[in-house]
Amino acid sequence: MMNIDSTASRAARLRALLNRPEIAFIMEAHNGLSARIVEEAGFEGIWASGLCLSAQFGVRDNNEASWTQVVDVLEFMADASSLPILLDGDTGYGNFNNMRRLVKKLEQRAIAGVCIEDKLFPKKNSFIDGDKQELADIDEFCGKIKAGKDAQMDDDFCIVARVEALIAGWGQAEALKRAEAYRRAGADAILIHSRRSRPDEILEFAKAWANRSPLVIVPTKYYSTPTQAFRDAGISLVIWANHLLRAAASAMQSVAAEVHKSETLVDIEERVAPVSEIFRLQGAAEYNEAEKRYLKRSQTTNAIVLAAGRGEGLEALTEDRPKVMLDVAGKPLLGRLTDAFHRQHIRDITVVGGYKADAIEAGGTHLVLNSDFAETGELTSLACALDAVRNDTVITYGDLVFRHYILRNLLETEAELAVVVDSSDAAKSGTRDLAWCSRADARSVFGQDVRLERVAGGGHGCSSPASGRWIGMLHVKGAGRDTLLAAFEALRRRDDFRFLGLPELLNGVVRAGHAVRVVYVHGHWLDVNNEQDLLAATDFAHGQSSVGVNS
Ligand code: SPV
Ligand code: MG
Known about the structure:
The chain is built from 19 helices and 21 strands. The protein has helices spanning 10-19, 32-41, 50-57, 67-80, 96-108, 138-151, 171-185, 200-209, 227-232, 243-262, 275-282, 284-294, 296-300, 333-343, 378-384, 404-412, 480-492, 502-511, 531-541, and strands at 24-29, 46-48, 85-88, 113-117, 158-163, 189-192, 215-217, 237-240, 302-307, 327-328, 331-332, 348-353, 366-369, 392-397, 400-402, 417-422, 434-437, 452-456, 468-477, 517-521, 525-527. Helix 9 (227-232) links the parallel strand 7 and strand 8. Bound molecules: sulfopyruvate and magnesium ion. Sulfopyruvate is lined by residues 49-51, 88, 125-126, 218, 220, 241-242.
């Protein structure tokens, strides 16, 4: 078969289908989805059938749908498929002037051509009372063809003239006379239609027509004719005019009846296309790719919450649940944390559970398990969630309660690695996670360029006073991920790895010469380590102690 240049315009491709020596086949479509299905099946073009377009609206093929409603559907079809579309334009929806406007609007939507029939507006389908159909005046119809040809901007746009003389029972001579007049008026092809169940009158017409111009047929009624007969007759284009709509109608009737009767979906699920197939036909994969490109920030930040511990000092309250499931003003700590993430559009949250992990309930989060939680430190928990350390990840302890701006400020830093340090906690000795930074908190300066120098575990002595306390929250993004993972792997090789916590990881990063940006806060958060903290958290949650809660 002669191949059509797939880079050519749609109109040029339709023209090539009509003009090439080999027969071509186009299939009906009536919306975007069916247009895509036609293309995937391998067809070279689409027939935008008037019957099917009206039927999918649930109206009759009597110009009950307006022409602009038809053009709106064509726009979806052209978006869903790259094939040339030949519109069944009925009678052109009016006189020569309506035809001119139709051609203009079709070209604007990349429709390749239009077929108009020599009947009167409003038309009626050719298979309903065909013999009673009135035909258009030949001269008037020729004027309509000329007007269309004069209106087209692209020389390749095709106008097919459909001869209804055989449908109306006016005979071969009338059909040939009309076809010749339409050809002379400028029609690019002739569609000869028949409502007979045998192809005789079509084949007779084709023989007499003798390839004066491309010939198009619609073998809906003479469907049992072998296609070779059309080839032998020199037919250019065969239109399978309504078969996807009819296939869909049968399938929908059968499924609707069965579900109504059985009151269950169990018997039909395997017979219908999976939802995933509908997503594929809609192009969902492309959307997901585009989302990665254009919705980076809000969609790609994820969080890891370390929530494996029971909570020393809280044994009385944690017999049946881990610390993160302790209630704070009607909501577990973990629920408060996930709410805080959601506020910053972080929905991908991995929780590392351990002690009583079965009791962890946090809708929409992924739970992973550190089964060795009793004998290990935070880095072993982090190891369970290492694949969740991505290009933009917040890692946090699970027992924090904080004002929303703290997480927002951390996310907004440009740094590839950043931690939140509370400068109000600097003076306390014995507090864990004390932090030494390159500069003390100059509280009047917003966005200070301060780097982390060291974080110490509980009670770790140091000659110089600490700059504050790391609150247990860090943000890693871009190349910071590789930095963090490299430091992690270095620690993993140590014999005491199982006892190590997040401070050692931060220190490892700093020791390797990488910058960890400090985001200073002054209070406005707390962590829960004993019953007193729990009460304070409840106050905090009620907003009764919104300033200096941790000082
Ligand atoms: C259509 O598909 O709408 C047609 C072909 O015009 S037919 O229904 O056979 O008239
Ligand atoms: Mg039609």
